[in-house]
Amino acid sequence: MASFIRAYELILQPDNGLATILFQDRSNRGLGIDFEIEKTSDSASNTATIKIYNPNEETIASIGRGDSIQLSAGYHDDISVIAVGTVTETFASVDGTDTLIEINMLEHLTDTSMNETVSGFPTNIQLIDKIVSFIKANVKTASSANVYFIDQIKNYNWSVILYGNPFVLLTEYLSIIDYGYYVSNGVLTIYKIGFALKDSSILINSTNGMIGSPKKITKKDGKTSSQGIEVRSLLNFNLVPGRLVTIESREVSGTHTIDSVNFKGNSVQGDWFCDVRIF
After folding, report:
1. What's the rounded Cα separation, in Å, for the pair 238 and 259?
2. What number of CA atoms fall less than 13 Å from residue 111's CA on the CB side?
3. Which of 85, 142, 162, 234 counts the highest number of beta carbons within 10 A?
4. CA 226 from chain center: how many Å?
């Protein structure tokens, strides 16, 4: 699509100091950026690489390891957050006449440890609620959580000490009841494995964003592998892991749950799409 309809907002927030905001919309041709973001439905940190073309010295100085970063993207005034995380590395390079700053980031990265005792005879739901509350209060890149419902109750006949990385603890108490979690765009989502997050489905077909044709893919996990489908769509921030998607094409038709999404974009030209994977 023509580059003039592409819009973005990139917020760089140091721990101490003012935020730097870069943006592009219908009235402002911003600095060129390039990004690739990988989002999955498991608890591993989502990853992203963002490149900024020809930033000034003030922008370069505002980017540091451990800083917060947020990227929103879309079209004209219709944009939404597609990545929130922590800067892990930055690199400077030269590409022809362009100076580039490359930023690597992870979502829900934390070295925060919790140490809390839940007295009495707590249930697993009380423990999960306690961990989620701690994450929201102490992990800046996971400061909110979607409403969740746990349908399996486990009682503990002793007080429980919650000690260690809160995400490790959350994985422990969710996995034993076949639940999982992931953090995307600064929001913690807890879900029942095998169930979609929402009943409403997003349609992808030749008149609604589909680019090319769906293709078969293989995902390997150790010694096992599974067959799936990958479909490319114009960049759509609503396409996130756990959502239902309905694909209409000659090769593939049906409604499926999204396993992972790869967002790829360039604010000037070329890429501005997402690859949706289903297994």
Report:
1. 14
2. 3
3. 85
4. 23
If pLDDT is split at 50, 70 and 90, which confidence band does 4 have? Answer: low
Helix/strand/coil for 61: helix
Position 224 pLDDT exceeds 90: no
Domains in the chain: ranges and CATH: 3-106 (2.40.10.10), 114-192 (3.55.50), 201-278 (2.40.30)
Contact status, residue 273 vs residue 230, Cβ threshold 8 Å: no
Q: Which long-range contacts (CB under 8 A, 24 or more apart) does 275-278 make?
A: 275/230, 275/231, 275/232, 276/204, 276/230, 276/231, 276/232, 276/233, 276/239, 276/245, 277/217, 277/219, 277/228, 277/229, 277/230, 278/228, 278/229, 278/230, 278/231, 278/245
pLDDT at 2 over 60: no
**CB contact burial 240-255 (16+ within 10 A = b; e otherwise):** bbbbebebeeeebeee
The whole model's pTM is what?
0.86
